[in-house]
Every structure is written in structure tokens, then in C-alpha cells.
Amino acid sequence: MIGALRSSMGVIGVGAAVPERVMTNAEIAARIDTSDAWIRERTGIGERRIVAEDEFCSDLALAAAERALERSGIAPAEIDLVLVATCTPDAYFPSVAALVADRLGAHAAAANDLSAACTGFVYGMASAVTHVQSGMAENVLVIGAETMSRILDWDDRGTCILFGDGAGACVVSANAQSERVVALELGSDGSRADDLVVRALRANPNVIEMNGREVFKFATRVMVDSVTRVLDVAGATIDDVDWLVPHQANIRIIDHATKKLGIDPSKVLSNLDRYGNTSSASIPLCLDEAWADGRLQKGDRVLMVGFGGGLTWGSCLMDWAAEPAGKVQ
Ligand code: ACO
Questions:
Q1: Is the minimum distance from the CB of 279 to ligand 1 under 6 angstroms?
Q2: Is residue 53 helix, strand or coil?
């Protein structure tokens, strides 16, 4: 699916939340056959956050959503739709989105989770864009929230070193600023499903199984292709992009795409070193950080690109419409 439209919609608030507990590479290396040096060199990851035993996806999602709402100036009652992208919900049902909508007091909102693994946040943004564009919704809360630590085989050094827990949220609003281009490109290839899978009802225990080399090849190719396609349909070039926000899977995947696309590395957001791969939370976590430290400014053109289980991928080009960090809480 690919398309571009002109619209006055934009992101008017962002928030994030991560668990308190930090797990370093050294801590993992004390248990299994790996090292801090190997993990840093092959992935760019230094540490990650891990939820407490009584902490769940909905807790992280709620905390991120509260911050995003507060910063957007929108009241919970004004939210029309809550979307939670997650592959680690508290339960099969109810959805995390329904729990979060209730705890926020967003009683007028429709709510549902969506499953596109690490591409989930981009799929969520696409859904928000189309709901707002159709006129069905004025304000949509899009959340990416994960407790990846719960679906890891902690003896598998090929996967357990990669992932972490966290959540990020954006408020997409209809009347954000003057009309600009919004563009989307989304895709899937279910024939590659077994390259990255949690078998759930088909297996016990439920843990991530990954063909790391195949996913690596897929990710480096699809990131460049998807960004190129979304820029084409928007009539834009890479020079028009102020911030490229890639899914945080591996710094080598990000570096490869940065070079291939010819974008200045200082315009590419990354926080892999501190959070690892937080799946659908990784893009909004980066956005929150860049907004909070003043890099991401109102009017900046943001290009988010995700890839992951399914296999799936997606890009979303959109202008940033949130007030600067200094002007809000
Ligand atoms: N520590 C030390 N050695 C290791 C580790 C480790 N943690 N993991 C693997 N190795 C070894 C392997 O056993 C192998 O040894 P061998 O040569 O004796 O067989 C050697 O290191 C090289 O292994 P590779 O798999 O070739 O290592 P690579 O450089 O490809 O890195 C990695 C592996 C990090 C998993 C990489 O392939 C990768 O990042 N893949 C993409 C992962 C990804 O993006 N996943 C998430 C997608 S998002 C989602 O939807 C969840």
C-alpha cells in the first residue's frame, strides 16, 4: 500500500516510558557465552530496560500516553481512537488499548491493538492518518509498547542480547498546522514468516525464534527501498527530510541505510545503545528523546521507517507539529 495526501494533520504531543531496571551487556555476559565487546560491535547495544515482575505492557503504555496527552494539551475525552501497537500485550484480550483508554478516562474513544511486530508503530501511524483523513477521528493516540523480555529465551545468545522493554506514544491531530504532505508506504511478506516468529498457541514456551542473518539482509534492503518509495510518492527527496527515525534493531542496519540513502548521519535518530530493540516502541522512544532535548522542532519533516516480524515493513513521512519542549510540561 502506498500513497500521499495533503493535510493539516500532524503529531502534536509525544511521550515515553521505560522500566527503571537497567540490564547491562556485562550482566548478560555473566550468565551466557557472550561479551560486552561482541554485543556493542555487532549491534550497537550497551544496555536495555527490563520490566519488573508486576509490570505489564499496559502500565508502560499508560505512562507514555499520559505524557503525550499532557504535552499535546488534549483532554482524554477528546481522543477518538486509541491504537496500541504491541506483540507483547498483557493478555490476548482485552486489548491493551481498551485498558489504557479506560485508565486515561478516554471514554469516547474506540480502542484496539494492532500486530505488525517491530513495524507496529508505523502501521499505527498509518491507521491514525487514514482515520483522521476520512473525518472519522479528530485526535488519535498511537502507542507502541512492549515487554520483549517476557518472550525471550534467555539462553539463546542470538536473540536475548537484542531486545528491551519500553513504550512511546504520539497524539495525531487533524488541525495541527498549515497543509503539508503526509505519505505512507506499507508492505508485508508472509512467505518469510518463519524468519522471525513467536509461535504462541503453536509452541511452548513462547519465545522469539529468529534467523538473524536473513532478517539482517531483509532489513538492510527493505529500509532503503521503503524510504525511497515513500519519498517518490511524496514528490520529495532525502534532502527534504529533517529527521530519519528508523526502527532500532541493529546499528549496522541503520548505518548501512544511512550511507545508501545519502542522508547526513546527524539527521538519523538512534538510542539503541541505551534501550536495545524495543520493537514497536523504538520509533516513538527516539521521537520523545529528540523532542525533549530540543533537536526535533515544530515544522520539521520526519520520516519514520520500520521493519520486522511478518515479515512487515513501512514508512511514514509527516511534519512535526508539537510545540517545543520548553513551552510545555
Ligand atoms: N555473543 C557472541 N557470539 C555470538 C552471539 C553473541 N551474543 N550471537 C551469535 N554469536 C556467534 C554466532 O554463533 C556465530 O558464530 P560461528 O561463526 O562460530 O557460527 C558468530 O557469532 C557470527 O554470527 P552471525 O549470526 O553471523 O552474527 P551477526 O553478525 O549476523 O549478528 C545478529 C547477529 C546481531 C542477530 C544480526 O544478525 C542481526 O542484528 N540481525 C537482525 C536482527 C533484527 O533486526 N531482529 C529484529 C527485527 S524486529 C522484530 O520484529 C522483533
A1: yes
A2: coil
